[in-house]
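task queued by scheduler; priority normal; single chain, no ligands, no partner chains; default sampling; output format set to structure tokens
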Amino acid sequence: MNIDPTSSKYLIRASIRANGVVNKSDVVGAIFGQTEGLLGDELDLRDLQKSGRMGRIEVEITSDKGKSVGEIVISSSMDQVETSVFAAALETVERVGPCKATVKITTLEDSRTSKREIIIDRARSLLINLIKDSRGAGSTITDTVRQVLQTEEIVRFKGKLPAGPNVDTSDAVIIVEGRGDVLNLLRHGIKNAIAVEGTDIPKEVIALSTERTVTAFVDGDRGGEMIIQELLQVAELDFISRAPDNTEVEHLTHKQIMKSLRDKVSAELFMEQNKWARPSSSGAKAKSSDKKTRRGTKSKSSKEEKCKPSKGMFYFKSTVNQGTRDCGCCTVNEGSITYKDQ
């Protein structure tokens, strides 16, 4: 039975029983024939259907052992009074074809109840989507503004290499692979990173490594290993830090970044741990080598003696913008290592 309850105000449901075998067309014909002129011209079924105030007569009927039973459903767009009057008129049908029949109204349904349920379900769905979109829009705006600020903070060191704004003034520099790594470190408050952008180490980075305390912070993959090998040959590395295996620096969380930097090792110890032979042109400093800083000249050995690192390990607090190392010879400044005057 194909009835759309949302297309009308009310549904008239009636049961029918006939003492004989009848079909749908017999029932429809009996309703038209026996209600015609019964309620006057205003409630004539044909006129009501033509004007759209009454829907089609839907009938489902089955026959068994010489008797027929079924259901009649009619949709109505009339008001409650007219619908009730017409429904009562259906019960006056006494014969269907040659058979005696009985029609009994079972229910008068307000189809607007179904519409209300549909409205509630749809409104709930729309509200949930609105809340999700609103939350997403807020975070999107925040992320967009933050990204704009971070992008504006990136500078071009010597007009070429992507770097944090503090690279030019900081005594400690972190060398990373690409611009995305610099951006991620900026996102977490570390502003003294510079990118080499490939395995061909720029001369600007090589020159920088002779003046500053340099930490190489690379990806935990084969590419990161290749960059370390290249840096050890051409630059003067102090420390080496690697991202966790098979992860990239640009995808690390704040906690992972700080843990990796905290667990860095000296270049000498890194080569020993990985059983790498010292390159003939290695930039890893010997104990007697000296490095100039923007605050004067300091020897690496004197720094190590004061900081007393364990087997080349160099520890500092992981919380950005807070804390001073216990040794008193260096401080943490926005995630970068700044040595005090000796």
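post-processing summary
- Residues 5-110 form a domain with the Alpha-Beta Plaits fold (CATH 3.30.70.3250).
- The chain has ten helices and 16 strands.
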